[in-house]
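Lab meeting minutes (informal)
Scribe: AK
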Amino acid sequence: MINMTGQLYYLASAEAGSDNLFAALGIDWQMLIFQMIAFVVLVLLLGKFVFPVFVKAIDDRQAKLDEAGKAAENAEKKAEEAEATIQATLKKARTEAADIVNTAKNEATQMIEKAESQAKTRSERIVAEAQEDIQKDVLAARKTLEKDTISLVKKAAGLAVAGIADDKLDTELVKKSVEGAKR
């Protein structure tokens, strides 16, 4: 405690002369003023030349970051819009493709039905033509058979009239004529 009291006494006595106070604290007041002026000049020079460059660089960088952020947001919005457009286009294309497939199936079914109808009509026409041909052939065969029968009957009648034949022979001749006509 004595030591502290001694120091307080020394400081109190140093206050009596301000020159002694700076000397007591180990401060050269001329050097202190020079350093204060140098500090103020340094702060002014830094404020005038260095800080504006740093602030401008930081502002430019911030502006570029802001621009990049806006561009990224715009790109993201455009990507979402493009994705929505793509999805809508794909949905539309799928619908159109399904419609095309259905139309193609319907057309194919119609074509098959038309072809079947045409084939049926053609086959019916061919059958009808064949029946007509058969009718004509049957008619022609009947006419030929009728002519042959008439010819045979004439021959048989001619033989019967000639007096060569008797009832038994007539019956045999008619039977032979009819059998010949059947062939």
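Next up, CB showed the second protein from the same session:
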Amino acid sequence: MKTAIVASLPIPQRLALSYAPGRSRELFMALFALDARLAGIVRQAREPMLAQMRLAWWRETLGKPGGERPSGEPLLAFLAAWEGEEAALSGLAEGWESLLAEPPFGEEEIRSFAKGRADAFAALARLAGAGGHADAARKAAHCWALMDLARGLSDPRERDLALALAEEEAAAGWALPRSLRPLSVLGGLARRNAARGGGELLGGPGDMLAALRLGLTGR
């Protein structure tokens, strides 16, 4: 199952995961897998109401303790290591629900989406024993979430708004420990991407070199 999960992840997350140490790898892998599943529901939504129902199921299910969740869904079992941070997982689903709002997206929808992702990474920091860096993790994840969203927005006004919010976060800066190295990679690539006005996180050889540096040094 783990091999299949890694293979299904977007390339930036897959690359970032390769730098995860020890137990953090399981936490990042589970979060990346859940995030990708929720993203797929939104991306493939032809009937917004049906997509909203699916996301609502995930939001409500993830908010329950592991022993109260239904069996038969491998991803739920994989998220067992997130015991105690169920609210953050539920909030991630709620963040993705924000993107099912009637377009065009305003600042409220964009901030709500980014917050859901960012809070989940802050929770991961606590689970990884790096609770003192939870705020820094939230900042890095917030910047990455906004840049990742901007990349997929076709409306110029929405994209410009997401970029502007990401640039604010990138300017604030953050420092993360070794246990959160995958987030150092994603956050660092997002900051680099914000400085050039958007596009793919891994758009060329320079980005790959930056990812290598971030993965090895965190900076």
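CB comment: The chain has one domain: 9-217.
No objections, moving on.
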